[in-house]
Design a protein that fits this description.
15% of the residues are buried. By secondary structure, the protein is mostly helical. A two-stranded antiparallel ribbon has the order 1-2. It is built from six helices and two strands; from the N terminus they run αααββααα.
Length: 122
């Protein structure tokens, strides 16, 4: 939950952590990430997010004293690639993929729909 007591979207915290790491010139410790995020997140929450991102291969970690310092993994440095990976991951969770894709396309703006048509070659 955020400082106002609202539940955050599941990927929102991971995205926030990755945004902080993308903007950093060097690997950051969990405490540095926590400070950059603000909003009163507990250190344990930041550590949990970083552990999950590490398990997913999204961040790399190196020893920094008694803690780890984190940086985006090579693959995660590509923000559009990360968004595409998340979209593909969500699609793979559903049995009726055609319905999911139809809903996705119906929610696109006209401009985005045209981009998608161009990419698909139709």
């Amino acid at each position: 939950m955020d400082a106002a007591g609202h539940r955050r979207h599941p990927g929102e915290l991971e995205s926030g952590v990755l945004t902080v790491l993308w903007g950093a010139a060097e690997p950051l410790t969990p405490v540095e990430i926590q400070r950059a995020l603000g909003g009163g997140l507990a250190r344990t929450t930041v550590n949990t997010i970083l552990s999950r991102l590490h398990e997913k291969g999204m961040v790399e970690r190196t020893r920094s004293g008694r803690a780890f310092a984190y940086a985006p993994a090579r693959e995660a440095r590509d923000a559009p690639g990360l968004a595409a990976r998340r979209m593909r991951s969500e699609l793979e969770k559903e049995q009726d993929r055609e319905a999911v894709l139809a809903r996705f396309v119906s929610g696109l703006s006209g401009e985005d729909e045209e981009h998608l048509r161009r990419l698909l070659g139709s």
